[in-house]
Design a protein that fits this description.
Layout (H helix, E strand, L loop, with lengths): L4 H17 L14 E2 H11 L8 H10 L5 E3 L5 E4 L21 E6 L3 H7 L1 E2 L6 E3 L3 H9 L4 E6 L1 H6 L5 E2 L5 E3 L1 E2 L4 E3 L6 H4 L6
Antiparallel strand pairs: 1-3, 2-3, 4-7, 5-10, 6-9, 7-11, 8-9
Helix pairs in contact: 1-3
Length: 202
């Protein structure tokens, strides 16, 4: 039986919380690659998750298969599940493959964050790695979560020449540890130094 769309969205959000950030809420552990046993996870979510409905294995299968961002994946034998990226929990320290990204990549943010980005660059903060996208549309959607969107371009070619390393998650998201501000420009080509000089016009 197909899971109701609203219920599926709630399950997806709760799985993101548990598998990326706070597995301790339902008293599960994640291995270094982010995996946890599905049967244990289901049992603990239904026991400790305080949700107004029970989650079944069939519902988990649907959420994993239908998630538009492919946030989750099963192990090869189907007994374990993980979030593929976006972790902040110290339990996880994933080994992503090193890859060469296209140039440029994009990052969507909100206007109010630009002054800090101009000073600090892009940093993971609570997440382990900075998330970047090949897709303008994806970057716009990410930035829109926080306010009026500002798109930033990342000069990956220059970063690679300067020794920075990029990784790619299974769902196509590009990852790196940090992007200093000198490798960033606004979508129309302005440098972020203009922000610090109060010359950036919104």
């Amino acid at each position: 039986m197909q899971t109701d769309e609203k219920i599926a969205k709630k399950i997806s959000k709760f799985l993101s919380l548990i598998l990326r950030h706070k597995p301790e809420i339902v008293k599960v552990t994640l291995d270094k690659q982010g995996f946890t046993n599905i049967d244990v996870l289901l049992n603990h979510i239904n026991k400790f998750g305080n949700l107004p409905f029970l989650i079944t294995r069939e519902a988990i299968d649907e959420v994993v298969a239908n998630n538009d961002k492919k946030r989750f994946e099963f192990s090869a034998d189907g007994t374990q599940i993980r979030a593929v990226q976006g972790h902040s929990t110290p339990m996880v320290d994933r080994d992503y493959p090193i890859k060469t990204p296209p140039n440029p990549l994009y990052h969507g943010t909100a206007r109010q964050f630009l002054p800090n980005i101009a000073k600090e660059g892009l940093i993971g903060k609570t997440r382990h790695l900075v998330h970047l996208s090949e897709s303008l549309e994806t970057a716009k959607k990410v930035g829109a979560r926080h306010g009026k969107v500002r798109l930033l371009k990342i000069d990956t070619e220059k970063m690679l020449k300067d020794g920075f390393v990029f990784y790619q998650a299974e769902n196509g998201v590009w990852l790196t540890k940090t992007v200093p501000s000198q490798y960033l420009t606004t979508f129309d080509g302005q440098t972020l130094d203009a922000l610090l000089d109060d010359k950036f016009k919104n």
